[in-house]
Design goal:
26% of the residues lie in helices and 30% in strands. The protein is of the alpha+beta class and 168 residues long.
């Protein structure tokens, strides 16, 4: 178990990618959405480990021990900003595993990694339909900072959230 209390947490491996895509697809379908890997907004899912590592972060999975992935989270570090800004990306928890604290623990873990990377603030963008996730983020101290419309295959709109990272 890692120090954040998440059994099975580890960085993604290439062989995890089909299970990750399956998890995200299940999460999307719960809201009537379609996961389209050809969509410009989803390009980072083609090789998420390499993508996020090349941007100062990583992509983590929670392995269920039976060949499945029950959660994901990623950190993208905007190192071009001073101070650097951490962005939580690809936060997904299997619908059957929700409301057990996994999403909160994953979010806290990514915040700790962002802090260790020199970030002072954390930001995230979440589809406007993901109400339960918004409540979780707000319970962790995130404030809503705006809304943006995406030109994606699902005609998505997202709410932005941001919070300061406590000194480590």
């Amino acid at each position: 178990m890692d120090p954040h209390g998440i059994p099975g947490l580890r960085p993604i491996r290439r062989e995890d990618e089909p299970a990750v895509i399956s998890l995200i697809d299940r999460c999307y379908r719960q809201y009537g959405l379609i996961l389209n890997l050809d969509d410009e907004c989803e390009q980072h899912l083609r090789d998420p480990g390499a993508y996020f590592r090349s941007h100062g972060g990583d992509f983590w999975v929670v392995d269920d021990g039976a060949g499945g992935i029950m959660g994901t989270a990623a950190l993208y570090v905007h190192s071009d900003r001073q101070p650097a800004l951490g962005e939580l990306k690809s936060m997904y928890v299997d619908p059957a595993r929700r409301r057990q604290g996994l999403g909160s623990r994953l979010t806290r873990m990514v915040m700790a990694r962002a802090r260790a990377a020199g970030c002072r603030d954390m930001e995230l963008w979440s589809d406007t339909r993901f109400d339960a996730a918004h409540a979780m983020y707000e319970s962790l101290g995130f404030r809503r900072i705006g809304r943006r419309d995406l030109a994606d295959s699902n005609n998505s709109a997202e709410f932005g959230f941001r919070r300061a990272l406590d000194p480590g």
